[in-house]
Amino acid sequence: MQPVNVIVNGNALSVTANADTPLLDILRNHLGLRGTKFGCGLEQCGCCMVLVDGKAEKSCGRPLSAMDGKAILTIEGLGTPDRPHPLQEAFLDEQAGQCGYCLPGILISAKALLDQNPSPSRREIAEALDDNICRCGSQHPILRAVERAALRMREGAPR
Q1: pLDDT tens digits for 67-121?
Q2: Cβ atoms within 10 A of the Cβ of 133, count?
Q3: Within 11-158, where are the H helices?
Q4: Residue 155 region, left (φ>0) first, then alpha (ψ -120 to 50), else beta?
Q5: Which stretches within 20-102 are classed as H helix?
Q6: Three-class SS of residue 90?
Q7: Which of 14, 82, 120, 127 has the most crowded CB, counting CB atoms within 10 A?
Q8: For the segment 11-24, what is each residue's pLDDT rounded down to a tens digit?
Q9: In terms of C-beta density within 10 A (0-12 exposed, 13-18 middle, 19 or more buried), how is residue 36 classed?
């Protein structure tokens, strides 16, 4: 076990665990960041989505060893209760969640999209969220929320 240096939500950390330990396990069980969810464990549902160097990645199948030197953003690093990210505000405004289990992964995927494309079409939003499964049927409010957040961000809301 060799230490792996990562930056998680802006904090430089040195993590020592088995090299093949999934990033999701490190986040939840070693660092106490439980916002990122375990869904299927097969990289198919998107509940475990995080940003790795700005790119949406499923953390359940990514080994710790592949994270050395990487910057990781989890849902906890997206915004705070006092200063929510425009996506978080828009999801609340649109009531875009029922059970909420999938929302951390969806918010992370949406952030990755809006960071690259500040004016996505509804089709581009749907495609960006294609790897995220919502079993509650909140897809239409989710799409509206991402559209609302994109507009707010274009109008100058902080990213």
Answers
A1: 999 999 999 999 999 999 999 999 999 999 888 899 999 999 999 999 999 999 9
A2: 16
A3: 23-25, 86-93, 103-116, 122-128, 139-154
A4: alpha
A5: 23-25, 86-93
A6: helix
A7: 120
A8: 999 999 999 999 99
A9: buried
| H-only helix segments in 70-121 | 86-93, 103-116
In a 3-state reduction of DSSP, which class is residue 15? strand
C-alpha 111/C-alpha 54 separation (Å) is 9
Radius of gyration of the chain (CA): 15
Torsion 27-31-33-39 (CA) sign: positive
The fraction of the chain above a pLDDT of 70, given in percent, is 100
C-alpha to C-alpha distance for 115 and 150, rounded to whole angstroms? 10
Residues in the chain: 159
Question: What pTM did the predictor assign?
Answer: 0.95
The long-range contacts involving 78-83, CB below 8 angstroms and separated by at least 24 positions, are 78/107, 78/108, 78/111, 83/158
